[in-house]
Amino acid sequence: MTKLIALITAGLFAAATMFAGEHGNCTKQVGHETKMACEVSLASLSLTPDQKTKMDAAIEEHHKAGCNEASEAKYMESAKSILTPEQYAKFEAQCKKGEKGKTQT
């Protein structure tokens, strides 16, 4: 019975890594920690349902574009147009805070 459980567990790990691939891992695709899309908790921004939908779409579009400098700039511009000035200021501050933490590792 333990062999069966071990076999199933190994199969699940193998399947999970196969489906995971390298999607959403901008740092591996670009090769630089500072190029990754800003990973801010959208919950901390108190978004309206419409803003959340638009931000989710902008993040998805950014990941589909390949996580390069151009798509990063477009993502930030999209965020600026979706968020209120107060939300964007908080978003940008959290992005910069995250970049400082990543570059110090």
Quick summary of this structure?
The chain contains five helices and no strands.
List keywords for this structure.
105 residues, mainly alpha, 0% strand, elongated
Low-pLDDT residue spans: 21-25, 27-35
Quaternary state of the chains: single chain
Please tell me the overall pLDDT. Answer: 74
Report on the biggest sheet: none
Count of the separate structural domains: 1
Order of helices and strands: HHHHH
The whole-angstrom Rg is 18 Å
Instruction: Tell me what portion of residues adopts beta-strand conformation.
Output: under 5%
Find the structural class using helix and strand composition: mainly alpha
How many helical elements?
Answer: 5
Q: How many DSSP-defined strands? A: 0
Helix content: over 70%
Q: In whole angstroms, how far apart are the ends?
A: 44 Å
What is the molecular shape?
A: elongated
SSE topology sketch:
Blueprint: H1 2-20, H2 26-30, H3 49-65, H4 69-82, H5 85-103
Helix pairs in contact: 3-4
Could you characterize what this model shows?
- This protein is mostly helical and 105 residues long.
- The chain has one domain (23-103).
- It contains five helices and no strands.
- The protein has helices at residues 2-20, 26-30, 49-65, 69-82, 85-103.
- The chain starts with a helix and ends with a helix.
